[in-house]
Amino acid sequence: EVVSDESSPYHVERVYCGHVYHNKCLDTYIRTPPFQEGKKCHTCGLRIYHDKWKLTPETAEARWAHKQAKQRELDEVVDFLT
């Protein structure tokens, strides 16, 4: 079944090298470490480009680190209150 809803995790995205990935798989891959030298296509080894993910490796790493720090703070608050 083709998923036409672009917000669905099962929607398929085609990257510039021509290979396709589920939206959720691609989003997770782009937004998690390692970030050095960009992300490579698992099929052909070319660097992955897509208009939805116009992040430099530095920006992606900074966003990931910020998200991790925020989660640690929330976990500490939960631990303190329980």
List the defining traits of the structure above.
82 residues; mainly alpha; two-stranded antiparallel sheet; Znf_RING/FYVE/PHD; zinc ion binding; Zinc finger C3HC4 RING-type domain-containing protein; zinc; Znf_C3HC4_RING-type
Summarize the structure.
The chain has two helices and two strands; from the N terminus they run ββαα.
Descriptive report:
Pfam families: zf-C3HC4. The chain is mainly alpha-helical and 82 residues long. It has one domain (12-81). The chain has helices at 23-31, 57-81, and strands at 12-14, 20-22. The radius of gyration is 16 Å and the shape is globular. The mean pLDDT is 86.
Topology:
Elements: E1 12-14, E2 20-22, H1 23-31, H2 57-81
Antiparallel strand pairs: 1-2
Pfam families: zf-C3HC4
Domain Zinc finger C3HC4 RING-type: 15-44
InterPro entries: Znf_C3HC4_RING-type (IPR018957), Znf_RING/FYVE/PHD (IPR013083)
Separate helix tally: 2
Bulk shape: globular
Please indicate the percent range of residues in DSSP E strands (runs of 2 or more): 5-15%
Q: What is the radius of gyration?
A: 16 Å
End-to-end Cα distance, whole Å, is 45 Å
Helix-strand pattern, N to C?
A: EEHH
Secondary-structure class = mainly alpha
Which runs of at least 5 residues are low in confidence (pLDDT < 50)? none
Largest sheet: 2 strands, antiparallel
Strand tally is: 2
Fraction in helix: 40-55%
Rounded average pLDDT: 86
Lateral strand order in the biggest sheet: 1-2
Number of domains: 1
